[in-house]
């Protein structure tokens, strides 16, 4: 089977509407700890890497002097600019953030990222480049604060997606290859961050059992459809994709259904860190 670098495709899997209204409105809101670590100040210039449709970016902007959001999705940035025209944002594939010379010129006090680095760092060939670009964006002494998926994040859904592809005859290697995520151990993230020149200040991993939405188009089905799009893209037709989604949901039914209120939980594992560019 031919090799495909999923990260060079131009498909935009992100729908701002599904993301923030039906599938995952909790992503930018369950962020108290990472916001506290960022601790935005009125004098701060902050770069938000993988800002999405800007809900969290706009919130941070109310506490800072200047905020710039960058995200690889045209759909997300279009929604951002419609909702928050007063906050600066633009489309940047952050695997190549280093090419944005007006950003990577030591003008930011802080670099922030929420729920995006496990997508942006997926490609091993650009991983170090991403972190080095974050480093280059900071003033000496500046800090980076990030929260993203850690090792074992959404493992039950991840495994079900891979299993479904194998069921369709996709090789296990290929099924792993099309995964759009890099979920590192805390130690692996620390190695990457330090290799880019940062001083590691602190890091932690947290299991966050997260109840999914119950609205039409949301829940585990909506989650699989939106976040699993790169896996489902391997299948030949819309019919196959719909069948696959039904089967994955059926598999997960016995795993994540909560006994006490019939809600559905996914085991999110959050990895957060704070690092500093030396003076
Ligand atoms: C789960 S959303 C998080 C958005 C936002 N930070 C929040 O907290 O709501 C992940 C975001 O990462 C972005 N992303 C994924 N790969 C990217 C890349 N290579 N460059 C820039 N952004 C990327 C997606 O477009 C998406 O908006």
UniProtKB/TrEMBL annotation:
This is Methyltransferase domain-containing protein. One of its GO terms (biological process) is methylation. One of its GO terms (molecular function) is methyltransferase activity. Residues 46-142 form the Methyltransferase domain. InterPro entries: Methyltransf_25 (IPR041698), SAM-dependent_MTases_sf (IPR029063). It comes from the Eukaryota. Keywords: Methyltransferase, Transferase.
